[in-house]
Amino acid sequence: MADKGWELYYHPLAGRGEFVRLLFEESGVPFTEINDDMRSKIMEGSFQLSNTPVICKYLGKKFGLYPENEEDEWHAEQVNATVHDYIAEGRLAFHGRNPVESYYTQKQETAPYIARFVAERLPRWLKYFERVLRENNGGQGFVVGSKLTYVDLGLFHVLRATESQFPEAWKENSKNIPLLHGFKKRIEERPNIAGYLKSDRWRGFEGNRMADDGWQLYYWPLAGRGEFVRLLFEESGVPYTEINENIREKIIQGEMSGYPVFAPPLIKKGSFQLSNTPVICKYLGKKFGLYPDNEEDEWHAEQVNAIVHDYLGEGCLSFHGINPMASHKSQKEETQPYIKRFVTERLPRWLKYFERVLKENNGGEGFVVGNKLTYVDLGLFHILRTTEAQFPEAWKENAGNIPLLIAFKKRIENRPKLVAYLKSDRWRGFEGNSMMGNMPSYVTLFTPKNNLQRSQ
């Protein structure tokens, strides 16, 4: 069997994975990055290895980025360990109250930890690295010896992370670290590194912790259209922070900066943000490896993705038949004919269509397109669950016509990460009074600001 080559498993962000990427990129060694596994490791064939400092040393040796004598070897290992200690301490400053909790949940409380790190610890670390450089050929070359080694790339990464994360502190300390400035510029200009940093493979720094805090999802505290997005994060194992506060002010009233947003959900990472649920689903599917493998399947997936969202939109509007901008409760009696017509005339047609879509691909025994899970499978799964929860009687009445959909729903529901998610308190639940989920929160969408704040 052909060797698959190197694989890097890491979150789709800079973080500690960046130490490893730099080694592959500088060496010109091809690798595949897999972002749907929470474990940080490298693999080649049956061999796998984790722990970032160990990976760096191992790949350095493998790729010829290794010291040439024993003394340099040990000094490189010392600096390698210290580099990783530095980034760990800097990152923990952003998680001072709870190291396993998101920075956003403790942002205010961690401010003193961050201030102390910047004022007291950061200058000491930088001065140490400056001394390390000076010790070898007066700081005009590399960390050890006369050639690039793995520890040079590690030091380069933490210097870039420091400048990006703490630009003011970097400027304030500049006069004390002239050798580090020169070193950083030299590594930055190496052809392979320069090419990498200009490519879309470079993940960027987000500016909220030294290891990057990843994705943010802005949405109401309910299932609704946000659920399409949550399922993609949850199935991919990609960390994200959900922000439910002040959605009206930030998005509906247009107070949020960045690329214009009409309505939630919104995803954000660094300076990049994106809205419109079908577009978000396609984008994250591509980012997270939940994307078709050929062009024909890609277009069919996009077709079904659009129709999935058309279905949810039509179903939701039947609950708002008098006024689409008003709550269902305010027009509950008047909308009954709209809901009845949707359930008796439209819903069966939609379900039969999705049944035909499944049957078209391998007789309906697998996925919507191709032979692997894609973003459109998760979208279809969500609307099937929504339909069953919202219209249990209609679901039973139509069951005889949709055996493939029922089996598909069960298969997706049994995927380990989704099982865990649907049992967790992150799953918002269906309330049974709208296809959007938790209606009591949703009705605050167009009510006065003080009502919105009370509902949270």
TrEMBL record:
By its UniProt entry, which InterPro entries does this protein fall under? Glutathione-S-Trfase_C-like, Glutathione-S-Trfase_C_sf, Glutathione_S-Trfase, Glutathione_S-Trfase_N, GST_C, GST_superfamily, Thioredoxin-like_sf
Native source species:
Tegillarca granosa
CDD domains, alphabetically? GST_C_Sigma_like (cd03192), GST_N_Sigma_like (cd03039)
At the top level of its lineage, which domain of life is listed? Answer: Eukaryota
Q: Which residues form the GST N-terminal domain?
A: 4-67, 213-292
Name it: Glutathione S-transferase
Which positions fall inside the GST C-terminal domain? 69-205, 294-430
SUPFAM superfamilies assigned: GST C-terminal domain-like (SSF47616), Thioredoxin-like (SSF52833)
